[in-house]
Amino acid sequence: MTHPTPIRRDGRHLATALHLAAGNVPVLPLRAGKGPFGNCPDCAGNACGGRPNMKNPGPCQCPRPCHAWAAATTDPHVLVSPAWATSWRDAGIVGYHPGGARVTVVDLDNTDAIAWARRELPATRTVPTTRGEHWIYRGAMRSVNGVREGVDLKSTMAYARWLGPGTGTMTALPDAVRALLVKEPSPVQPAPRAVAVSALAGGGDCPHRTPVYLERGIAMAEQRITEATSAIHTTVYATFLAVLSTHGRCGCLTEAHMDRLFTAAQVKGESPRHCAVAWSNARTALGM
């Protein structure tokens, strides 16, 4: 993720957004209160039923998500389209999708949180906020609010405010940040639950003689989605189809594997709804 110097002439947030998009940072307009807009005519003014401060893609059935983090884009044609004109006119600030830019924002909301980060986390690029700081690391992960007092993680399926390029050198996402997602282990760890897919008709031998075969297949699928530069919907569906065709009938494919694929797709801008539909359609196509 690059951090070009923001352009802020006469409140021209669109100019800032276009500058960031040119650096592969997916952007979207935000209200003065940090809430997102509905950026298509059917959803303007949240006519589709979305809440004014909605932080997730809304209940709309738009061909392309137009709400919140899922609307963030690097496409200049979308950013300057008439459908988004009202949103930019009324925008209070520019937002961006950290996961789409392959970064994670550790949002430190007060002085105590900042002091904790300075003790426990490696130094990285920092950006001052109204009440605290954003610490930005290179690498995406799942977003969670309230991982500890005054600390939120913003990456995939989330948006953050663009508050300037910050200072310092961005470092790789450390284990100390990833560990914030880990809950205390329960006394008895349940076995991974297999994704509900039908077994082979008439039975069949499991092709996964070692975990390496399955792991390699999932890793290749993640890479295929991550490296897609166009036709994201089609690529996600085709990848889900290939994974289920090869790995989905013997019971070795778990929800953890499915979560990895969904996360990769959502980093590319797919909504959870689109991921679920693509997965379901792939199963149907294979008769599962």
What does this structure look like?
The protein is globular, with a radius of gyration of 20 Å. The protein starts with 12 loop residues before the first helix and ends with a helix. The protein has 288 residues and is of the alpha+beta class. Mean pLDDT is 78; it is low at 3-11, 51-55 and 183-204. Strand 6 and strand 7 (151-154) form a beta hairpin. The longest helix has 16 residues, at 211-226. The chain has helices at 13-22, 68-71, 76-79, 82-90, 111-120, 175-178, 211-226, 232-247, 255-267, 272-285; strands at residues 27-30, 93-96, 103-108, 125-128, 133-138, 144-148, 151-154, 160-161. The strands form two sheets. It has a five-stranded antiparallel β-sheet. Helix content is 35%, strand content 12%.
Using brief descriptors, characterize the structure shown.
288 residues; alpha+beta; five-stranded antiparallel sheet; three-stranded antiparallel sheet; 12% strand; disordered N terminus
The end-to-end distance, rounded to whole angstroms, is 40 Å
Order of helices and strands: HEHHHEEHEEEEEHHHHH
Q: Kindly estimate the percentage of residues that lie in beta strands according to DSSP.
A: 5-15%
Mean pLDDT: 78
Number of strands: 8
Oligomer: single chain
Percent helix range: 25-40%
Provide a count of the helices: 10
The main sheet comes to:
5 strands, antiparallel
Strand order of the largest sheet: 4-5-3-7-6
Q: Calculate Rg over CA atoms.
A: 20 Å
| Class computed from helices, strands and strand pairing | alpha+beta
Shape estimate: globular
Low-confidence stretches: 3-11, 51-55, 183-204
